[in-house]
Write a structure and sequence with these properties.
By secondary structure, this protein is mostly helical. Helix content is about 60%, strand content about 0%. α1 runs antiparallel to α2 and α1 crosses α4.
């Protein structure tokens, strides 16, 4: 699985949706991703990719595309 698929799966699991339902540019809040669920998603992503996402970065994550971009940036910084 690639980064997008892994993140889609994690968000889908937290929101009880199939990964395919999550569109790249639709605001995640429209799927029901509230602050508590966002923390669950971020914790899962941090564990899977061995990265850290701080609160300021978390506040900028409104779409799947933004989450993917941040994770890819963080993983490249570690390489």
């Amino acid at each position: 699985m690639n980064t997008e698929q892994i993140i889609r799966q994690e968000i889908g699991t937290v929101l009880a949706l199939s990964a395919e339902q999550i569109l790249l540019d639709k605001p995640l809040i429209e799927y029901g991703l509230d602050s508590v669920r966002t923390m669950d998603v971020v914790a899962g992503i941090e564990d899977m990719f061995d990265i850290e996402i701080d609160e300021m970065e978390m506040a900028t994550l409104h779409t799947l595309r933004q989450v993917i971009a941040l994770v890819e940036q963080k993983t490249q910084e570690l390489a």
